[in-house]
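Continuing the batch. This is chain 6 of the set; chains 1 through 5 are on the previous pages. Same settings as before, nothing changed between runs. Recording input and output for traceability.
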Amino acid sequence: MDAVTWIRNPQVAAAILLAAAVLGLVAANSPLAAGLDALKHWHPTPFGGVDLSAAHWVTDGLLAIFFFVAAIELRYELTQGELADRRKALVPAIAAVGGVAAPALLFVALVPADLASGWPIPTATDIAFALGVLAIVGRNLPVAVRALLLALAVIDDLIAIGLIAILFTTDLQVWALVGAAAMVVVVWALGRLYRSRRGSWPLRIAIAVACIALWWLVLQSGVHATIAGVAAGLVLAPAPAESARHRLEPFVNAIVLPLFAFVAASVAIPQVPLGELSPVFLAIAVALPVGKLVGITAAGWLGQVALRTPRAERMPLGDIVTVALLGGIGFTVSLLMNELAHRDAEELIVDGTLGVLVGSLVSVLVGGTVAAIRSARLAPVDAATRRAGDLEDERRRTDGE
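Output for chain 6:
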């Protein structure tokens, strides 16, 4: 097995992701912390109107590539995969809304009124970490479980990005948003043109340039730049999209996600006595695992009933619960929202950070355990059959490349 094939393996990629996260957390709480913090805040020479720190080049720049690949996979699931049926496709959207509403309401119920402005913090799901945990411990679970988690997490993050834009963006640039909308149309048009000229390198380059321009415009608008990756991945025609996904997947697994995990996890654990923590800590630590569990499970199950999904086609309650538990891994976006919501109160940022870490860790442990137990109960698929299925799926995805 060559290195590229090896790094495409979901379990290998997830193991590298989680190892990088552990390394980041350890480094941030070691004597290396000061140097690491300086490196994260280092600003390379600005160009093209872009002045980002090294950390933001990872979380706003490289991570957009991951979102691009994830959106392409989501589109495949929505058009040809497990969510191709319209009723099945609506379930993740309904579950995502429940997964946002329940943690927010629980947070508000657990804090005094003057601290309620932090309600968006526990509403996000970290796509990379949630999928990573599932890949490691839930390899025998039905494909539909991963499809639901992927769709739910993408929609969840879109809602979170929308909340950031509405609640926390003070310098929204309308001209850039209008330009970004126009560039989405350009990406779509170039993708359609590619269908009649498959293998055209000038068109591939044009699509890449258009995607970079879209990212730049979204960044200039003040909205989180990763939404550019989602938009491009969803509108790009299947042929160029699958070609791009196939080429980018090894880079994303080997470089983008480990760097993201390292930067995102390099958080100093606050040295605060438990008795001195504000209600914000407990509210987040409870709202992430419990709120997500209740909201996603209830909305997902009721969504299937409301959409009159035939009983034989409904996802088992146990699978929905598994997805809901993993949905409580908030981490990156939750940490970002914590900083934005409490930017005028440093002590609340400390408490909120600890709450996000604890809540996400509980979700990793409980969700991972449940996924592992359910996976172990399923008869493993014969290795040859699994490999043949993977090759066939890859062939269909890259057809027309």
